[in-house]
Amino acid sequence: MASRRTPLRLVAAVAAVAALACGCATVPTVGRPERVTGAGGQAQQFVQPIPPVPNGNWKPAQIVQGFLAASASVSNNHAAARRFLSPQLRRNFQPSWAVTVVGSQLSAVQRRVSPGNLKGQSGEVATVSLTGQQLATISNIGQYLDSPGSRTYQFKLARIDNQWLITDLPPALLLTQSDFEQVYQPRNLYFWAPSGQSLVPEPVFAPEQHDYAAVATNLVHALLMTNQDATSWLAAATTTAFPDGTTLLGGVSVAGSTAVVNLGGAAAAAGSQQRRRMAAQLVTTLTSTSYQQPPISRSVVLEINGRTQYIGGERVQQPVNYPDLAPSSAAAESAEAPLYFIGSTGAVSLLTHRSAHQVAGPMARAHLRFATIAVSRAGPPQLAGTLAAGPGCVVYYGALAGTAPLGHRALPGGLCTSLSWDSLGDIWAVNAQRTWVLSAGSRQPAAVSLPPLPGGDPAAYRVLSLRIAPDGVRAAMLVQTTGKGAHQEVLLTAVTRTDSQISLGPTVTIGTSLTAPAALSWYDPDHLILLAGSQLYEVPVNGGAVVPLGPVPPGTQSVTSAGPGQIATTGHNQILTSTGPDGIQQPTAAGTSPAYPG
């Protein structure tokens, strides 16, 4: 099933902020397309809105409304929004990526006091308070964080030279959801997994600019930020090759299809291997096509203090120089992944080209009847399975082929509800009481402590299902809260590994618009597949809107995926699979627990 998602992009006009409850007239804005050249010479439609200009006849609430509309224009360092500010505030106004996303219905309360005092001179002053629904916050590196709830935002104004201007405003710019979708584009930053074998995407939203060079400059600045630990749920579980004190000299330039990045500061002391790792982060970030965005560039030239760096003997660095560091969904579309499942006899079976047959391996010779299985992604296929009968949860594991017998480990705490592998060969199991890891080295079960809910909420919950992303760092959890108002939700967290333990880091919530999600799987590096009700949904991990993918029969219980066109579900002892990017779920075999590798 293909995504029907529409990429976030600017349209021909920026929507005006909804009329305030005070009855003020809506301030109109008009946009005009401006065609610029992107990577490879392709034309990219960037639309810079023509924002409102403050009018001497406007009242304070209209000035605030106009400021909100002008905030959607980021051209020339928010020049349009600055026109609504007092001279002193204009000089100190330093907006970043950070914004607050609000609903379109904002009520206003205006209070005027006269005379006021501004720099020792009497004059009119006013306060405008906006109240409405806050939807999310965007961090200073572009992370979208759900933060719903009613909020009030206060603006102070003064009449200066017969013009009302804003003298004080909330710490972050306010954008309505519609304006945010028009002026911010989904992108990824890439950081290293601790293993050094893969890059982990950090989803961000980057403000649109007048050209790709400006967008690239923003992204590189974000890669170099030293306060990532304070803003990113992935920070403790990833690393960066850029040494502390690395700076970007000037802005990134894009010539043709090549981005030129000139670094200074601590980067000058980096050795050759570290410079190659720095280049890998830059190349992967600037050439990414995640979320259906066009690449900013198709190659990168790394300079340090103005001197070109030849890495691997090459001046121009391309994605082909760093293969398999950040696998994309395109790789999943190029080949059909094997689908394993439990046949009607309880034996492990394999479905290829819509033809099913029993796997002849040690699990077949042991005559074990499985209830849940998972198959490893890397190397020769490895099986993990739990039995359909017996006390507690016993995990059997071993090669799908060959003669070596299966090993097994018993987990206390009841039957397992979830079983999966990560890219390091560890097995993750979930039962009614705990989440467990059976490490590749010993297969000795180790309980994993669960992190608080988003925002540090200590409310109790239990994990129903857990899946590790292909990068081996990010994890998606389907959880059920306990106590009053119990409900199910989907969390993202990151796996942190030390010599002594494996732990899960801070959590963020995605797919909040779905009611009672029942099953999940990774769809590609940037999306999950969720089963909710009788529908499958594609859910971006950056907090964006969910996209319906199609209905499934009533009674569907699980979902697994290896990318677009490769989705399998089960219900009523029947395996259903999609037949292509736009295919619907069709019955293919009798069985349960379908599992693509991973």
Textual characterization of the structure:
The chain has 598 residues and is mainly β. It has 3 domains: 30-183, Nuclear Transport Factor 2, Chain: A; 185-330, no CATH class; 336-595, TolB, C-terminal domain (Neuraminidase). Strand 38 and strand 39 form a beta hairpin. The protein is globular. Mean pLDDT is 84; it is low at 1-38, 40-45 and 329-334.
Descriptors:
598 residues; mainly beta; Nuclear Transport Factor 2, Chain: A; Neuraminidase; 3 domains; seven-stranded antiparallel sheet; 39 strands; 43% strand
Summarize the structure.
The protein has 598 residues and is mainly beta. It is built from 8 helices and 39 strands.
Mean pLDDT: 84
CATH topology descriptor of the largest domain:
Neuraminidase
**What distance lies between the first and last C-alpha atoms, to the nearest angstrom?**
19 Å
Q: Could you give the order of strands across the largest sheet?
A: 18-17-16-39-38-37-36
Low-pLDDT residue intervals, each spanning 5 or more residues: 1-38, 40-45, 329-334
Structural class: mainly beta
Tell me the number of structural domains: 3
Question: Can you lay out the helices and strands and say which pair or pack?
Answer:
Layout: E1 30-37, E2 43-50, H1 60-70, H2 75-82, H3 87-92, E3 99-102, E4 107-118, E5 121-138, E6 144-160, E7 163-168, E8 173-176, H4 177-183, E9 184-192, E10 199-207, H5 212-224, E11 246-248, E12 253-255, E13 258-265, H6 272-287, E14 299-304, E15 307-308, H7 329-333, E16 339-343, E17 348-352, E18 355-358, H8 362-365, E19 370-375, E20 382-387, E21 393-399, E22 407-411, E23 416-421, E24 427-431, E25 435-438, E26 445-448, E27 461-468, E28 474-481, E29 488-497, E30 502-504, E31 508-510, E32 517-524, E33 527-532, E34 535-540, E35 547-551, E36 558-563, E37 566-571, E38 574-577, E39 586-595
Parallel strand pairs: 3-8, 13-14
Antiparallel strand pairs: 1-2, 3-5, 4-5, 5-6, 6-7, 9-10, 11-13, 12-13, 14-15, 16-17, 16-39, 17-18, 19-20, 20-21, 21-22, 23-24, 24-25, 25-26, 27-28, 28-29, 29-30, 29-31, 32-33, 33-34, 34-35, 36-37, 37-38, 38-39
Helix pairs in contact: 1-2, 5-6
